[in-house]
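Summary for the funding panel

The consortium committed to producing paired sequence-structure records for every protein in the target list. Below we show the first two records in order, beginning with the earlier of the two.
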Amino acid sequence: MTLTVDSHADRMDRMYRYQRHIYDLTRKYYLFGRDTMIRELDAPAGATVLEVGCGTGRNLALIARRFPDARLHGLDISAEMLASAQAKLAALDASANRPLLRVADATDFTAEDFGIDGFDRIVISYALSMIPDWEKAIDAAIAALNPGGSLHIADFGQQESWPRFAGTALRAWLRRFHVTPRPLLRQALQAHADAAGDRLEFRSLGRGYAWLAVYRRAR
């Protein structure tokens, strides 16, 4: 696949050209649920794992340590972020599961872009809230799953059990970073599951601060 550089890719590169150097340090305080999602991947030996919107490679490095026999892959629309990911993941043992990284659009990729037929696990961590065509990203991820595979999502919820003023303030702050929580995330995933005979697991953390979803494709 040839990536067409568009305004979203340019915007992400501009935003992360310098932020990427401090991204992991600053985000660890409010991107809740990522480590829970990784612990629950349950990737079997030899599983193919993809992170969509892999950013600095922080999550892939954790997945590599937790599932050392997995075959890891990552994509991001920002070449700037992938530069950080390449540096971080180069420290992994070359004989182990060093991820294969690609600059690609989350809304327009296939498993074949990575030279395989499909993925056993796909992770999307706090990326859908930054992708304008987020529903297309879900379409592409589900289409790239192997039968019996699963899509794991962590992202901002709707702060449904928070005081209204607090949720409004958080969302206003997030908009400064081009982040828009997706209120229809659960409905979009459930529609896919109902149409395909697949299964969806969905829960909230921190009284709705974050949402965790697992979409399990039928065998």
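The next record, for a separate protein in the list, is shown here:
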Amino acid sequence: MHASSHVDAGVDPDAGRIANVHPPDWVQPTPAGRYNLVVLGAGTAGLVTAAGAAGVGARVALVERHWMGGDCLNVGCVPSKALLASAHAAARVREAGALGVRVGGEPRVDFAAVMERMRAIRHRISPADSAHRFRELGVDVYFGEARFADDRHVDVGGVRLPFARAVVATGARPVVPAIPGLADAGFLTNETVFELRALPERLLVLGGGPIGCELAQAFARFGARVTLVEMADRFLAREDADAASVLRAALERDGVDLRLGTSLGRVELVDGGPAKRAHLGGPRGTSTLDVDAILVGVGRAPNVEGLGLEAVGVATGPQGIAVDDRLRTTNRRIFACGDVCMAQKFTHAADFAARTVVQNALFFGRAKLSALRVPRCTYTDPEIAHVGLTDAEARERGIEVDTYAIDFADVDRSIAEGTEAGFVKIHTERGRDRIVGATIANRHAGEMIGEIAVAMAAGTGLGALARVIHPYPTQAEAIRRLGDAYNRTRLTPTVKRVFDALLRARR
């Protein structure tokens, strides 16, 4: 739900953002009869649901307890990508010598300026998610704690909102592991790291998922000494193992100390703080590590507490709210979407799930979550992008696949730019060209994966991608070349004999 907007350059960016996403002088609307839809939560899922429903003429109430825009605008996608842009720029300066450009030594990162730029970007984007904008769209926006009074009313600060249908889109929060001493020593999560004003000289990142990898690389490129601790024997466990290996090499080049198969046993303050001593256990045995900050990124927990779900018969489970393929809960009047119920906790997944909810909740639709082809991307350098199944996931489901792969070291544009690390890997059904999944590891992987996602959504086979003309030279040409690779497999001995006979007849 983000769009670029210009704002007053003289306004403090944090104050300006908050004035948009939770105005301190906001006057709650007065309910005017029963709402077609009451939406709990104003992150991406809630905003798209509310805007979509209001756009078709529904009477909509939207309830948010904290900031509109949710994680994505305030503590997720927007600030992290602004931070990564600065980190990657520093890396480009360091890499310039290999391209024959002399820059006169190590770049100096002004961390305070980096963070101020990030805050200005949040402010600039925030009007698109603002309470005032949604009021203009015809949505009644309420701030406060929402709770189901019964299966036809939501209570917000003593005000009852009657509804025909309701949608729970309350999102998720960082998981904080129960590690002795961690809470007393203090730690950062994605909800607090963007409030830093000074660069931690020594940073321990706990967790090797997308958040941990992205921020570990960013802070290392800013000049911090970063240690990444992951309990498993590899990071990015959901991704293709070869892609994770490409990223591992990149992180190590950036100076990240990777501690895989390692756990954080306890934390204590050093001589009363603020430095912290982490006690680690892993393949290297037990050890201690003194750091200035600990960033926790070990997962997300759905926000289901305090909503009165039990009273209205809405079941929850390990994934959060239990929903069927149409995103209905166990109470057929109540739907859910986004991080509170979905395994794929991405902004774009929440966006399209919300569109499914609008169709199903208001118009008795039969749209299914399983029909969505949701790509994902980890925005490290190189990026790791994926859609569909990995080869390992295909094997687990008993699906036999053929895999077509090309290294960017064999792609002319990548050679010219010096971005040869990585590959494109596409999986098809064994003996057919139906694409079941793809992984791209490359500096521009997130931009490239969309072409394969379109092909999968349209039912276009890999062979047909060989007929898509790409500008030369581009990195996306690698996808076309894999289409050629598939088509060459169709030249069986029998087909070749037929071709040979036809060619002899034409001599």
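Regarding this second record: Residues 324 and 335 are 9 Å apart (CA to CA). The longest strand covers residues 159-168.
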